[in-house]
């Protein structure tokens, strides 16, 4: 729920921050968050000095020419000038390398992404939606292999989370009445800042334009000074923090115009990302397409708690579509307008956030990026989860438990451990009510991408819906023995208040009843010593005088049989499409074809994720081999192994290449009436197996009951020669 947290934060803090406090905040971040690489800074300075030297030499040459100096004198000056120009060129080259990742890696990343995306689109992992009508930005269809990968990921998600933790799964409507999203804060605050092309009306996300401008300047403009480069880095580091006015001011200051037309832009203004609709034909019930699935769980809390035997902790889960009308979706599958979310709401007693199964994950070590490390410009470090919780870096065991479970989930899917980190939200990213938040970020060609948000949202959501609906979304802890407690009792004397405040009576009474214990005790002592107290009634917008006799304040002893409280919520929220896209990138590689004149694409999906577990084909188009292939296909179907059968007359090498490109881990080649070969995708090694065993072996392999090494050592085999398929 990160974006809402950020959005809520900027508007729930006590009024707009003054520009002075904002500036000092920004400056403090400037020092810690945007340190410029020493070499880059010195290169920028050296380049500026060199430019000055070239200019002054140029002037000297001109002066010599004007003074009609001797030819040798002028030639020597020109030589010196050319020498300086060469030196300048070499610094420029070094600086260019430093700002673009040192080795042209930006270009490599772009080329790699193109290769992945081309393969994904060509093999129908996904298709731009409504393509024949030229598509709509931010909307994608999943084609057959994409659907299968998604189904596998979701099925593993259910097994790993819902089944393992006995979570209560629900399935709520996407269409949501306004009142629900009003209570949650989405109607008022789920916004991004937008600017419009003043002539064409085309919309852009204001922060994206500023971000692109700064990145472009940093990477391509070698003439900017070291100070200016620091400033651009600072802007990038504080982008999330800028108000509409500040963003607008920066856009004006840098002269940023519409990227497509170069027309001037409007001032930034908030745009609500929810798709609005109305429910029913009359148009009187406003609604929205849900921007997240979580609210469906919160509004069902009372029933789910009852279903769970009125016991805490428990978790509810939901998988479903979420809709966000992103202003200018970019980054392919990573930022879309409709996507699948899988969310867990784990309800826990705020006074006890321990987790009985934390010991099962506490030994895990992986990249963690606590906020202090981010603030001091360090990188993520491999950290033991148990230690991070013990030290308080992670706020509590339950949050830590889910971080560990998310790590196990993502790495089992095939996400590379070295490109997965857990990044803690900076203080300015978290809403005031959140206790702690960590994002599972996966590195891909677009950089580090938030794929799972894991947040301790305290009691905020249940409180909000309790207040709006009037239904108490609370839990109770029954005491074994009744406990004696001292309770504050505030009794406004309505008759006296009515006489004194007439029409405002109700608001004064409500304000008195809402006093905190500290406020009430202060008023009591003031009434006793002075006979009156000045009291601010916010709903009236003024201070009134409360006189002795208008309110009774006392503390009374009471017996309590239970403690009633609003549970805290720990929420892991998975963007399924983002995880899948990163998985595609982490699984993709190229290898040369047998004759070496072609690069072949491979997706090295683990069997768990692979869209199809196995291909079957006859070695050549012969009826007896085709019959064997058909027979094996029947055996695989009976064993529940998804497979395809390829009877085409293509060479075996071509057929292998086609299945490798879909990430099919095993291929069975029928070349005899008694036994067959199974080939493993990445090693291209092969084993000989009798037909009667083949289905059970492939089933064991794809269900990860057995490894390829197990099968390899137990059956006759041969290794691919020089990495080539023997049969190509
Ligand atoms: P949020 O509620 O903004 O924290 O989003 C929850 C998760 O949804 C994020 O961790 C992302 O993985 C995913 N997500 C958010 N916005 C989008 C989007 N526009 N397209 C695809 N996935 C998204």
UniProtKB/TrEMBL annotation:
Keywords: Aminoacyl-tRNA synthetase, ATP-binding, Cytoplasm, Ligase, Nucleotide-binding, Protein biosynthesis, Transferase. One of its GO terms (biological process) is mitochondrial glycyl-tRNA aminoacylation. It catalyses: tRNA(Gly) + glycine + ATP = glycyl-tRNA(Gly) + AMP + diphosphate. InterPro entries: aa-tRNA-synt_IIb, aa-tRNA-synth_II, aa-tRNA-synth_II/BPL/LPL, Anticodon-bd, Anticodon-bd_dom_sf, Gly-tRNA_synthase/POLG2, GlyRS-like_core, tRNA-synt_gly. The keyword Plastid does not apply. GO terms for cellular component: mitochondrion. It is found in: Cytoplasm. Residues 251-592 form the Aminoacyl-transfer RNA synthetases class-II family profile domain. It is an enzyme of class 6 (ligase). GO terms for molecular function: ATP binding; glycine-tRNA ligase activity; transferase activity. Its main location: cytoplasm. SMART domains: WHEP-TRS. Its EC number is 6.1.1.14. Residues 46-102 form the WHEP-TRS domain. Belongs to the class-II aminoacyl-tRNA synthetase family. This is glycine--tRNA ligase. The lineage of its organism: Eukaryota, Viridiplantae, Streptophyta, Embryophyta, Tracheophyta.
